[in-house]
Amino acid sequence: MASIEMRNIVKQYGDGFPAVNDVSLDIADGEFMILVGPSGCGKSTLLRMIVGLEDITGGDMVIGGNRVNDKAPRDRNLSMVFQNYALYPHMSVFENIAFPLRLSKTPDDEVRRRVTEAADVLELQEHLDRKPANLSGGQRQRVAMGRAIVRQAEAFLFDEPLSNLDAKLRGQMRTEISRLQRRLGITTVYVTHDQTEAMTLGDRVCVLRKGVIQQVASPRELYDQPVNLFVAGFIGSPPMNFLPATVEGRRLQTPFGTMELDDRRAAAVSGRDLLLVGIRPEYFEDASLVDEAKRPHGTTFRARVDVTEWLGDQQYAYIPYDAPEEVQNQLRELSRELDSEALRTQAIVSIDSTSRIREGRDAEFWMDSRKAHVFDPSTGENLT
Ligand code: ATP
């Protein structure tokens, strides 16, 4: 096993914008790191540079303490698991797992020992004589990982391995990969564009945008302390709401009324003019259901409910609001980049399923100012 260090990595295809632009990232030995971001952000290119399938334009790629920029993929001893698992349909599970050992002409008894060991770890002992076609998706994934284990690879690299699967299987496989990675403790780098996958799988998540790292943090930290509008909008589903606001001392005027700021937030916005307030759907409530002790920490407001969606344990309400043209354009642009229709001039609020709000009617809501983020609309920086 090995650590992976990237120092000022650049990838330039042709003479356009660099696909990967000065990326420095340390992945610890045994760590599960997710690379996530919208299409074209450079995550696959970065993964391909780790494995050696793509030349590095600038910077150093260091694996297990050795600079590998000029090493061929086969000399890096990494194992890449692809979307379709790349199993041979005519070979048994045993032979599929044994494949890299056969290539390196490992003696038969050694092959048998290592494949059996891998099958034990992966709980595939009873399936060794089967063909891949007779396995479930999860079992096939394990065979692919078995092949990586027998090679004693230094790290596993996954490039969107679940994107072809239906939602249910994807959920199962996520759990499976996560369980196996913990058990094996092998350094793992996993590329996805799916923020749910990113949040549920990794120890840490690296969010990329246009070839540049935005934030590297644990899933919880990304969710609670996004560094900018981009990360805030990308992580979380439904996404964070962004409300235009003007500053008046320690108060913010939002389309949903006046928000009183605590000392920390008031200091962060002092001297500012127009801002964007970011507040996640779950920090709104039906005002009639708010705990009285909590009420003073937030803003109560009336608004018309456009659409409701009932999900059993909660319901979403869509509340349109007015925003200056400039803010509307900005949100439209962000929603295009994140491929999310939700980021428009409507708030999505998640409230208790017992709430009696009705579509097309006014209702009273409450939002928790203690959970508000404040963003600089020009730089996108989170000021709080
Ligand atoms: P996706 O999720 O769509 O695969 P990604 O985040 O993995 O996207 P990359 O495939 O790494 O993104 O691509 C990053 C940028 O580099 C994109 O703008 C892409 O068009 C460009 N690019 C990728 N491969 C090549 C190539 N072989 N030649 C030229 N440009 C490329």
Automatic annotation (TrEMBL):
Record domain ABC transporter: where: 4-235
Keywords: ATP-binding, Cell membrane, Hydrolase, Membrane, Nucleotide-binding, Translocase, Transport
SUPFAM superfamilies reported in the protein's UniProt record: MOP-like (SSF50331), P-loop containing nucleoside triphosphate hydrolases (SSF52540)
A Gene Ontology molecular function term of the record: ABC-type transporter activity
EC number, UniProt record: 3.6.3.20
Alphabetized SMART domains for the sequence: AAA
Residues in the signal sequence: none
PROSITE patterns: ABC_TRANSPORTER_1 (PS00211), ABC_TRANSPORTER_2 (PS50893)
Cellular component annotations (GO), alphabetically ordered: ATP-binding cassette (ABC) transporter complex, substrate-binding subunit-containing
Organism superkingdom: Bacteria
Keyword set includes Hydrolase: yes
InterPro entries: AAA+_ATPase (IPR003593), ABC_transporter-like_ATP-bd (IPR003439), ABC_transporter-like_CS (IPR017871), ABC_transpr_MalK-like (IPR015855), ABC_transpr_MalK/UgpC-like (IPR047641), Mo/tungstate-bd_C_term_dom (IPR008995), OB_MalK-like (IPR040582), P-loop_NTPase (IPR027417)
CDD domains linked: ABC_MalK_N (cd03301)
GO biological process terms on file: carbohydrate transport
Name of the protein in question: Putative multiple sugar-binding transport ATP-binding protein
Gene behind the chain: ugpC
